[in-house]
Specification:
This protein is 48% helix and 20% strand. It is built from three helices and four strands, in the order βααββαβ. A hairpin with a 2-residue loop joins β2 and β3.
């Protein structure tokens, strides 16, 4: 029997993690349907941004988004793509914040780390 070895390749990946600032406070002030509407709106925008920068959404959970750049396709500027995506996520959340600000009593902000 032939020896079958698995060939693999190491890739550098950049992981972007974001969550909504003061999410617990927001959920206490709003009906669950309203909270879901806000997150659905934010996640829809994040999907478009990630697609633009050729990242992959690993998961959405509650108020969290985990995005990976560099897998399955690597680019030499994946860390920069992640930073640009993070900047656009902040911008889009700032733009939609005014829609919900009066209802929740605060502006919407995202925490983002890599």
């Amino acid at each position: 029997m032939k020896d079958r070895t698995i060939e693999s390749e190491r890739k550098h990946a950049t992981v972007l993690f974001s969550d909504l600032s003061k999410y617990t406070t927001i959920t206490k002030r709003l009906d669950p349907e309203d909270t879901r509407e806000i997150m659905k709106c934010i996640f829809k925008e994040i999907e478009q941004i990630v697609k633009k920068f050729e990242g992959v959404i690993e998961r959405f959970f509650g108020d969290e988004a985990m995005v990976i750049f560099g897998v399955p396709y690597a680019h030499e500027d994946d860390p920069i793509r992640a930073i640009l995506a993070a900047d656009e996520i902040h911008d889009v959340v700032d733009k939609i914040s005014h829609i919900y600000q009066a209802k929740i009593g605060q502006s919407l902000k995202m925490h983002i780390g890599q």
